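I have been asked to look over a protein record a colleague put together. This is what I was given:
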Amino acid sequence: MPAEAFLHAKAEQVEAALDAYLKSLDGVPPGLEEAMRYSLFAGGKRLRPALCLGAGALVGGDSDVAMSAACALEMIHTYSLVHDDLPAMDDDALRRGKPTSHIKFDEATAILVGDGLQALAFEIIADMGNIDVIREVAQASGASGMVGGQYLDLQSEGKTLALDELQHLHRSKTGALIRASVRVGAMLGDANSKQLESLTSYGEHIGLAFQIIDDILDVTGDEASIGKPVGSDAAHNKSTFPALVGLDEAQRLAREAVDAAVSTLDDFGTEADAFRDLAHYIIERNR
């Protein structure tokens, strides 16, 4: 299945499940629920839940088993975007072509939206009763993963990082949750050790490629396509791959990461073609 069709199919399933989760909430103030829904359904590729569901299917698992984790991963990703957009962080007014949460509502509400989505994500995962999955997601999204990467990103503003430092930053900020999405799906599908090792490596490589392309699009993209102003990285004096190594070398590094990701799937047959196509889609996308 081509990557865009794969993502679209998974997104429809995930969004129906996300809607059901929000509708099932009790005791949430209506204004907060509205703001949570606004951010959660503001668009996006639903890449992380698609990877979770796809990895589970790839190793022969039941997609229904992985759906709760897929929804939780998307909630965590959304909370991170809401907080990243805040004035204390990246101070962005647009996300996916729409006003960011703190612009649409207010800064305090945006903070609480992120808090609420993160707590709901772990409530959903806890209900699954799988401590390994809980640990995997917590480590990927916490201080040694996504949160730590965001801290490093903020601390790097105005500084020139070495290439290995920049790669570590992005493997934490962006790559950790992508890697966890693949691993969680494989774990829930009862992957054997070799399958889990291969898919873990796949997730690591596409996570890095995804962030490199994000950096590139901030230079070469247009606001209509990417849904937010271009040039924000330069405006914040952020360390990025184009700034550090130039556009051509950044594109080469992205292609190298994608090639490495595809090579990890050698032990899988045609059933992994969607993941192969998805790796190439990551460096061909324009948003």
Remarks:
- Residues 193-220 form the longest helix (28 residues).
- The chain has a mean pLDDT of 94.
- The first strand starts at residue 94 and ends at 95.
- Residues 183 and 200 are 6 Å apart (CA to CA).
